[in-house]
Amino acid sequence: QVQLVESGGGLVQAGGSLRLSCAASGLIFSINAMGWYRQTPGKQRELVAIMSSKGSTNYADSVKGRFTISRDKYTVYLQMNSLKPEDTAVYYCNANVVTLDFRSSDYWGQGTQVTVSS
Length: 118
Prior knowledge:
By secondary structure, the protein is mostly beta strands. Helix content is 0%, strand content 63%. Strand 9 and strand 10 (104-108) form a beta hairpin.
């Protein structure tokens, strides 16, 4: 019913920048929160940044001041600056979507790899 397609991952040196994008499409009535999570092997998926439909944001302490989340209707972005090797992970987009049948569900993107070399 709803698809989230991510782009923008890749390999970057420490101190560099990347911008992730995630576009939602399908039977969408509205989208509540949209956000980014990340996961490394053997660890649980963790919240990186999230933005509500009204624009309020929340960031993991580890990325405050370096990452910025923004959104444009059905697309969410993550601008990542001053990247560190510990930011290396698979980044997943998440959206809480109200579909045309007025049901609310969480949807996930396929994940995009971000690798920061030292």
